[in-house]
Write a structure and sequence with these properties.
- It contains eleven helices and two strands.
- With 265 residues, it is mostly helical.
- The protein folds into two domains: 6-46, no CATH class; 59-264, MetI-like fold.
- Strands 1-2 form a two-stranded antiparallel ribbon.
- Helix 7 packs antiparallel against helix 8, helix 8 packs antiparallel against helix 11 (234-264) and helix 10 runs antiparallel to helix 11 (234-264).
- The two termini are 28 Å apart.
- The mean pLDDT is 87.
Amino acid sequence: MLVHSRGGKRTAWAVFFVLFLPLFALPLLVILAASFATSWSSVLPSGFTTGNYTAATRGEALQALTTSLLTAAGASLLALVAGTWAALVGTALGRRLRTVLDALFVLPVAVPSVVVGLAVLVAFSQPPILLNGTRWIVVLAHTVLVTAFAYQSVTAALTRLDPAYEQAAASLGASPGRVLWRIRLPLLLPSLTAAVGLCFALSMGELSATVMLYPPDWTTLPVLIYSATDRGALFAGSALAVVLMAATLLVLLVIARIRTRASFR
């Protein structure tokens, strides 16, 4: 902690708890409590039941969770490939062209995601590339939305790489492709896994663009949560939200484990 005095540390912790508890912890705890409830008692949920989780882990809910996981995995991998490739290309560009490249990748983040969804819908609703009504348009929209984060993560990592490793390999006769595969990418592995985790988490929670694009057979879990709460099934929606958070956290823990091993390597 940057604060060294005892009084300063106590003040910092007090401010942290004052801000953290009401803004972050309490809403999540209320959702957790509501996922086990059947009714409201004053301002708090009441009536313990596990039936909400029974419904949240079967049938349509389980299919929606699988859809979200597949969509997030596909979008994350595509975003990682596109973002890494663009970041590597950007290192060879001049300052002005690199600024243009940065702006192009940040643009989908700078506008509302519903605008990105509409743009993808309009762009791919007519031949020669007709994706409207398919699952691929959802994956594409998620990829567009999260690629900026992969690009920025890899770009930041590239600026911190010591060029001495690449220069030494090149001086020993290694080709540019071999230098990339054996030197640059292994050194970037911790940043690549971090980028995948961030893209995956963002894709798992994406709703606005998905609502505009998803076909009936490719309903993600956020869409199902929105539908449940929209028709007043708040407790069922809370259970679905907890399942979504748990699944996302589990995958992020696995990615963090891989990232830790990559860092030690």
